[in-house]
Here is the input.
Amino acid sequence: MENYLYDAHCHIFTLRYAIKEVKGMLHDILNGTYPWHDPSSKSLFAVRGSWSDLKLLLRQLYELIHAAGGSEEENLNFLQQEAKKAFPEDHLRIIPLMMDIFFMLAYPLNKDQEFKHVDELRTPQIDLDDYQKCWNEILDDLTVYIQSNKAALIANGINDVNKNIESALQIIGEERSVEETLKLRCGESMLTGMDGFFRTEGYCNHLNNLMDLVKTRKGELFPFIAIDPRREGIVDTLLSGSFIKGDARFYGVKLYPRMGFHPLSKPMDSVYQFCSDNNLPVITHCGKGGFPPSTTWKYADFGNPLHFEPVIKKYPDLKINFAHFGSSDPTFQWAKTVARLVEENENVYSDLSCYTNVRDLINKKQLCDIRPKLKTRLMFGTDFDVMYFTDNVSLKNYYNNFKTVFYDELEVLMKRNSESFMGL
Ligand SMILES: [Zn+2]
Here is the structure.
């Protein structure tokens, strides 16, 4: 019989996704329609930040996914190949998580705050040449950055650095023109029709590529859709059930509150209810670090597991994974909260994704030894390819570290706990 192991937390998004998404953000900033609302005023449009902020953002995104110059499929192949080396007898199933970065520079959605819907809005039209000129400046900045960072890539142990840089530059070349984006945004209302949500190129490109892989690589991947309630229509589309129907479907919801939405903002309640009713597991980023790379990022505390306690009480059947077990916190406050929530509730999980440091791993193993229930709720994840960003660790070493620290208990993390979380 086939034995399946799970990478319960990874990402296979690509540089192309990031570049396309930032291109769309630039459009809306220049257009004066990013992020549409200033919640404190009645004005419909409010521009926040300046377009040149996108230079830094794109550099940071490149840092985050610099091993992913290829396609989603290449990333999947790489994960499979490395897992095969580590576990030759077993098959790997991966849980790739989407990310929605589009609103990270927008106004936050705070606790108890309602999201204001915008109906049938037509965008003003920006000048093609202005748009292209700004975009060129951003891409030129990224190009210089990539070329000057070759040494860092080599130090990080990235395979075939020249090829990696070449493919990144090729993607930049292919994403140079803004014409397509402008056409897409002007051709129709900003919002799509009935069963629609605000579509941006990067988000949709990655979503479609994931769905194609679910179809062509049956049984290998179980993706989670990123929900940011500020993306017009995305919550309603989730509630319509269309993301979890058919052959090409999602298997859970990924939340990244540190992008700027509070877990207890108004629209989120219907998300939890829907997930609870439909046995759809939720993964929420639960580390003080993350993206953007700073533990003092202004919305970092939105990811505090304490904010989810009322949700867990209201929806006790909801399966929720506090990803990263409250990492990047020397006081262990978040980790202690997660451990307590696991202890007190039946459907709370956590994962050890992005645990590139052996000491942290040993620390969590010791915690498991004194809290046996934790051992039944903790999952393995690589956090590929964000993991490359944190330490100089290859996937091979990452697997080896887990094997060394957990020995034969690794199977529980990589199999039984993930199956129970996913309901598989
Ligand atoms: Zn992650």
Q: What stands out?
A: The beta strands are 4-10, 91-96, 224-226, 252-255, 282-287, 320-327, 348-351, 378-379. Residues 128-148 form the longest helix (21 residues). The CA atoms of residues 122 and 189 lie 5 Å apart.
